[in-house]
Amino acid sequence: MAKPLLPDELWAIIEPILPGYTPSPKGGRPRTADRKALTGILFVLKTGIAWEDLPHEMGCGCGMTCWRRLRDWQLDGTWRRIHAALLARLDDAGKIDWERAAIDSSSVRAVFGGAIPAPTPRIAAKPAASTT
Predict the structure, then answer these.
(1) Where are the domains of the chain?
(2) How far apart (Å, rounded) are the C-alpha atoms in residues 6 and 38?
């Protein structure tokens, strides 16, 4: 049997981080479950297929549904929170070797110069002591 893209242990970590959803009072088509949408997102990102080629047999909804969920979670910061939670768990388990982590301007580009830095306060030189 193939290894699942979203094991129960990983889903247990991610599920509480995902934003809640309130159905429309007007009704409409039922929303695709978050776990199914996340499985579809992981499948597309892992395999590199186009969103519209997501196999319907997977039961993840259509590719556009998964793409919209990916977009929405990116815009509201959900992916950042998931990443932070997973890093925290790895760090707590001692699975991250921080000695090998490095970041500097040669590996992370500051597009258009980055943010404008705050002005640096200048310290005036001490006046020379007078000898008279």
Answers:
(1) 1-10+31-96
(2) 8
- Predicted confidence (pLDDT) at residue 125 exceeds the cutoff of 60: no
Q: Give 65's contacts (C-beta < 8 A, 6+ positions apart).
A: 32, 37, 40
> In angstroms, rounded to a whole number, what is the distance separating the alpha carbons of residues 18 and 124?
53
Give the pLDDT of residue 28.
87
Q: Which helix or strand (DSSP H or E) is residue 63 part of?
A: helix 63-75
Q: Cβ of 40: how many Cβ atoms within 10 Å?
A: 27
- Enumerate long-range contacts of 31-35, CB under 8 Å, 24 or more apart: 32/60, 32/61, 32/65, 32/66, 32/69, 34/69, 35/6, 35/11
The DSSP element (H or E) to which 39 belongs, if any, is helix 34-47
The structure tokens 């815009």 sit at 75
Tokens 């909804």 appear where? 61
DSSP designation for 52: G
Helix (H, G, I), strand (E, B) or coil at 43: helix
Q: Is the pTM value of this prediction over 0.85?
A: no
